[in-house]
Amino acid sequence: MSKAIHPDATIGHVHLIVSNLERSTQFYREIIGFQVLATEENIVTLTADGVTPLLVLEERKDAVRKPRSTTGLYHFAILVPDRASLARSLLHLLQKGYPLQGASDHQFSEAVYLADPDGNGIEIYADRPKEEWEKTESGEYKGVTEPLDVNGLLAEAGDIPWAGLPSGTRIGHIHLHVADIQEADKFYRNGLGFEATIRMGNHALFVSAGGYHHHIGLNTWAGVGAPQPPENAVGLRLFSVILPNEDELKKIVEQLKNIGVTAEFAEKTALVKDLSGNQIQLKVK
């Protein structure tokens, strides 16, 4: 029987393949509010606090659009520290006239949705206090999607001007298209050790560490049995899961081995792919 992942495990960074590095960097700086942390020939690393890498953009000259009905990234979610920060981000997006794809109240969080120039999905959200998160009779969180109180949220912006993402920002969760929910359940729960927090029939599963509402969302909305995108498609290259110590990393690698999944070891890290081709870097803090 697998053991639960350490309650302090979190999502670390997201690494995206993009088609135009200059365009994407400008978008993530001027529209989203990241700062540049490091620049290489075809890679830019972005941060919110000047120290912690949160987003890596890698340009491929041969990049193609990700086909719609394939596995991979649904969206990655930027967690800002409080409701006022979310309000200022939303106000900034509205003032810039950047098109939004949605704005929702999920009961445990409030969120706005958009896409980058390559179509990569982005959520910017703020959590409600944990004591307000409601649970169902089964013990799972009550996840809903209701219209966001936009006017009420914007009233929180105050007179403080938008100055990019605040330093307490991090990657709160990531949401993936997978080919099969049962296979994903086995990989993320039995292999990695995440705990199920929300289930939506046989088409969506949300899992977390430490009682969070979700660190990873999984769905078959691109189609059951959906194929993987081309290797040179824009989208997710990998995301990292940060672990507190090497013992935790070894435990998870052994659990993956027990379900027939091999991880590629490096110093204090391991690379592994789920059965839908989504790549995860397990990394010791």
TrEMBL record:
Keywords, alphabetical: Dioxygenase, Oxidoreductase
Keyword Disulfide bond among UniProt keywords: no
SUPFAM superfamilies registered for this protein in UniProt: Glyoxalase/Bleomycin resistance protein/Dihydroxybiphenyl dioxygenase (SSF54593)
Keyword Glycosyltransferase assigned: no
Record-listed E.C. numbers: 1.13.11.2
Classification via InterPro entries: Glyas_Bleomycin-R_OHBP_Dase, Glyas_Fos-R_dOase_dom, VOC_core
Broad EC category: oxidoreductase
A Pfam family reported for this protein in Swiss-Prot or TrEMBL: Glyoxalase
UniProt-recorded Gene Ontology molecular function terms: catechol 2,3-dioxygenase activity
VOC domain residues: 10-127, 170-285
This protein's name: Catechol 2,3-dioxygenase
Protein's organism: [Anoxybacillus] calidus
